[in-house]
Model the fold of this input.
Amino acid sequence: MDAQFPDIEQNVPLPDSAKEAYPDLTPREELDMRARTIKMLSDLTGRPLAPDGGDRDAARRLATEMVDSGPIRPDLAIYPNETIAYLAGLVAQYDTQVVRELADLKRFVVNKLVEETGHPDAKIRLGALKALGEVDGVDAFKKRTEVTVKLQSIEEVEKELLETLAKLEQNTIDVKMVEVVEENDTTDS
Done:
């Protein structure tokens, strides 16, 4: 059996470290990547991740720091695997809760608007109906514009233009110019 070797391109610079080879990640992407890696290593080695009270407290502090610090990136490499795993769980749970709360809030607002459509005051009814019509998914008042593009060659455009001019010429009437002179009325009153 012959040995096979892959084609190796010449003069392609290699990064100095693995860190340089990775693309820039947001703190959330880095956390997700680290958590997936930690989970995979835990599954492969058979050692479960069991964060203790200190890991949970550190993860909560780190989560607060990540929210409060804005663009400042925390160094996730200094934390133990249990802290990172717990932090990833907190972030995932927080995202799920926010989405669920927003959906519940939208449902609440729509239900209240529906209630207001039966209000005795016409102004309030009309306002509720207008707001309901603007709800995403209802879109009763959304304006849509359609644009049709017709591609034609120059010859086709020229032919169409000449036909239009011929039709216009058929609808014209010949007019004779006559000069009208006004006469002054000189009758005595």
User: Anything to note?
Assistant: The mean pLDDT is 83.
